[in-house]
Amino acid sequence: MRNLLLILLFLGTINCSNKQESINENKIKIALIYGINTTFIETLINDINDYKESNYPNITFIELNASEDTVKQQSQIETLITQGIDGIMLQIANTGIASSIDAYVKANNIPTLYYNIRPTTLQEGTYSYVGMNEKSVGYIQAQEVLKVRSNGNAVILLGDQNNESTLLRTSSVMQSLSNTQIKILATAYGNWYDNIAESIMEKWINLNNNIDIVFSNNDDMAVGSIRAIERAGKKLGTNNGEIMVLGVDATPNGIQSIKDGKMYATVKQDGKLEAKIIVDSIVDMINNNKNRTVLIEPEVITIENINEIEK
After folding, report:
1. Cα–Cα distance between 306 and 218 in angstroms, integer?
2. Domain boundaries, the chain
């Protein structure tokens, strides 16, 4: 946490020293591109735009949604560079295309900041990235369960297959439970969507009546699973015979589910802080052309601290 605070102070210092010169004297155009349109990403994009309007009103954002289409995303970037762009904030649609995109933007000297989804096929230190410390997420979920349960059967709803967040959120849950009496019965890819997760959960319940815990890689899938659990007449909770559901992102739907006594916990990905760091970082990259990686530490939200977190 101390290292994170030092990084934030460092970014703030650089931003303050360069902001007046770069923003007042130049009409900067920056692309804001996203590839996966989840509830959290919708909120994050809004936070990025809000922060820009409040702090960098002279910057022009060009917002593009690739809708999980890698060919479309590559075409968007090529068109932007041809038309003229000063920098790119990029949530990559699929890490498999990271190498080709990265080579293209570097060949054209366009500062590019990856956010939310790390381009894992690229060599560490050769790119800039802002996102959550994904390794902490599954650990936090597992610890919340272990506070109230010493045994039980669990399932895990995964994001998409080609995503580091999916891998790290899932593996850290499994590692944290490896020496406990909690058994992982099944995993399945819900691709971040509530309707897919709802269908998966319905099938799991029909196959096995002894599910005690649902670990979900995000809130949307957790909410979808809750619908299936309730439709099957199952109770949500921590007691024997009840099902605990844990999500990630602290989306409005996730927070409301906790307030309603349905979702047990979510792991907060601080979108407003992430938005600030993303925008400040890309502006500084345009001015100074330096790579940086910032990992934001998540925190757990339960009914016990939800009012404090929302302040």
Report:
1. 17
2. 2-133+269-300, 134-268
Total-model pTM = 0.85
What is the rounded CA–CA span in Å between residue 206 and residue 224?
16
Q: What is the CATH number of domain 134-268?
A: 3.40.50.2300
Domain 2-133+269-300: which CATH number of 3.40.640.10, 3.30.980.10, 3.90.1170.50, 3.40.50.2300: 3.40.50.2300
CA distances from 57 to 84, 133, 192 (A): 19, 30, 33
Q: Distance between CA atoms of 18 and 13, rounded to whole angstroms?
A: 9
What confidence tens digit (pLDDT) does each residue in 232-265 have?
A: 999 999 998 999 999 999 999 999 999 999 999 9
Fold match flag (2-133+269-300 vs 134-268): yes
- Give the list of residues 6+ apart from residue 108 with CB closer than 8 angstroms, or none: 81
Q: Which ranges of the chain would DSSP assign to H, the alpha helix?
A: 2-25, 39-55, 70-83, 98-107, 134-146, 164-177, 194-207, 219-231, 252-259, 271-288, 306-310
Tell me the pLDDT tens digit for each residue of 101-147: 999 999 999 999 999 999 999 999 999 999 999 999 999 999 999 99
Q: Could you tell me which of 159, 124, 148 has the C-alpha nearest to residue 242?
A: 148
Among 34, 94, 98, smallest CA distance to 61 is for 34
